[in-house]
Amino acid sequence: MEIIINDLRSFLNDVPEHHTFWFANGIRVKNLEELANILEKIEDHIFYHHVNDAKNDLSNWIRDCIGDMILVEAINPIKSKKEIAVKVKERVKELRSNKKSKKPAAPSIAAKKKPVKTPAKKRS
User: Fold this and answer.
1) What pTM does this model have?
2) Is residue 114 scored above 70 in pLDDT?
3) What residues does 21 pair with on adjacent strands?
């Protein structure tokens, strides 16, 4: 059984004000498209304050506030500003095209087949 996630575009929405990502220089982003645009312009030392061998604040923010686990898995191991920017832009483009994603799911109780009652045979 598979579940189709129809509302992937919600990953493009703004997060609530209290969940915006604050870069060390005071720049804030509230969605993936803004993140992609800022990554092209932000200074390297600001980027490396958030993404380095010890941590990946961008990946954590996407996981905790956006919820896009596909993008998290794609950027978590990356330490390059340019590479992360490319991955984020690609994901935004994919989400905008409203592609559907499938993932396996455990069958629910409601999905289990119920026994079918058959009418009793008539005696002749």
Assistant:
1) 0.73
2) no
3) 29
